[in-house]
Design brief:
Shape: globular
CATH architecture of the largest domain: 3-Layer(bba) Sandwich
Distance between the termini: 50 Å
CATH class of the largest domain: Alpha Beta
Radius of gyration: 23 Å
Structural class: alpha/beta
Number of helices: 10
Largest sheet: 7 strands, mixed
Number of strands: 21
Strand content: 15-25%
CATH superfamily of the largest domain: FAD/NAD(P)-binding domain
CATH topology of the largest domain: FAD/NAD(P)-binding domain
Length: about 400
């Protein structure tokens, strides 16, 4: 990291400000880190706003070092690592102990609910999360079907409530830590992290959920984090007054389109099938929004990329007519379904043909003492309310498992 010598940033900032450029890999990594941790920030592309180069040079004593990140407290980080960003954000990076009764991997509704139950039972509980606490639900703009909220609740608010409740009962939450494997030594389960730290437990719950699928077309990988996005909550504000395409005609696509249209002048939802699959209630809301258009029977063939890594166009085929065209939105959001976050476990634990973890009726996996709940589990309904229910069930099953262990 380059030292910016705590340069003054003038008037206090209301939010984090990042100076960067589309071609800068460290800028893309920092943006991805902030997105994963659900940190709000202002992004200034020094190529789109050349006048900002002078500010970057002033801060860095004449050097054009990016990303240059300014914080509301007056501090500055230049070309920081993920570890430095995590420390600056005061994320809890190391657990206080090496051994716990229960380790939960994932902090969505399933993981946090399980933690609430196990910790209330007096079982020492560690939750390990690589992204934002709350999991995928924290990215949902509005939830109208979660029990107990008669007027609905935002995903971010629900995630915060679950976290506070878990911490009130003594759950320890480890953030920005990626689990790379689960092992065992016969008596205990071992959870290995990318940082090199291993944590042991009597029982482990995998509640890592799922992630958004990608289009898998040419140009997509080069534009992720630049003009291709998966989280409207994180990136919609960058498209004020612009035109956006949303790929996906299911509930997620329609929900995010409603959020994006608060910023963009026009939002177009494109669906591969010949009809949308969102709920009737969401379809009615979208129908009532003049800024949103729906186009079905559309196949994405390619995302065109400029030499400086910007979106140059979207190559589409109308499946009804076979006509091919190139459209020119300012950005695209990909919301075409979910895939399980099971990569660290698939070599040790049985999964189905799609990669979701297979469990017994007790929610125990093929590895003794390791359980699974929520979206990661084969046969789950992929709903936040049912994930919370599975988390509670898994906690009770783990308590029963622990009670049957032979004490030496």
């Amino acid at each position: 990291m380059t030292d910016a010598a705590n340069e003054s940033i003038g008037a206090p900032l209301e939010t984090i400000r990042m100076y960067g450029a589309a071609w800068c890999p460290d800028c893309r990594r920092a943006k991805s880190f902030f997105g994963e941790q659900r940190v709000h920030y202002e992004y200034i592309d020094i190529e789109q706003f050349p006048e900002s180069v002078a500010e970057v040079e002033r801060i860095n004593h004449g050097m054009r070092s990016i990303p240059t990140i300014l914080f509301p407290d007056g501090s500055i980080l230049v070309e920081p690592s993920d570890e430095e960003l995590a420390a600056k954000l005061d994320l809890h990076l190391e657990a206080s102990k090496d051994f716990y009764d229960i380790i939960i991997i994932g902090s969505g509704p399933a993981g946090l609910t399980a933690g609430i139950y196990t910790s209330r039972e007096g079982l020492s509980t560690l939750v390990i999360e690589k992204s934002g606490v709350g999991g995928q639900v924290g990215l949902t703009r509005q939830m109208d079907n979660f029990p107990g909220f008669d007027k609905g609740v935002s995903g971010a608010d629900l995630a915060d409530r679950l976290r506070r409740q878990a911490e009130r009962f003594g759950v320890e939450i480890l953030q920005a830590q990626k689990v790379v494997a689960i092992d065992d030594d016969g008596a205990y389960r071992i959870v290995r992290t990318a940082s090199g730290r291993d944590y042991c437990a009597n029982a482990v719950l995998i509640a890592t959920g799922s992630h958004y699928k990608r289009l898998g077309v040419r140009g997509e990988a080069k534009l992720i984090g630049i003009n291709v996005h998966f989280c409207a909550t994180c990136d919609a504000p960058f498209y004020k007054g612009k035109e956006v395409y949303v790929f996906g005609g299911g509930n997620s696509g329609f929900q995010e389109a409603l959020h994006i249209c608060q910023f963009a002048d026009k939002v177009t939802i494109l669906e591969y099938d010949y009809e949308a699959h969102a709920s009737l209630a969401l379809q009615q809301k979208v129908h009532d929004c003049a800024a949103i258009e729906i186009m079905t029977g559309q196949q994405v063939k390619e995302l065109l990329v400029t030499p400086d890594r910007k979106l140059d166009g979207v190559r589409l085929v109308d499946r009804r007519t076979g006509e091919e065209r190139i459209d020119h939105p300012d950005g695209v959001f990909v919301l075409i379904g979910m895939e399980p976050n099971c990569e660290p476990f698939k070599d040790r634990i049985e999964t189905d043909q799609w990669g979701f973890i297979v469990t017994k009726p007790t929610l125990e996996t093929s590895m003794p003492g390791v359980f699974a709940a929520g979206d990661i589990r084969a046969g789950s309904t992929k709903q936040a309310a049912s994930a919370a229910g599975e988390g509670a069930t898994a906690a009770l099953m783990m308590r029963q498992y622990l009670s049957q262990l032979v004490k030496v």
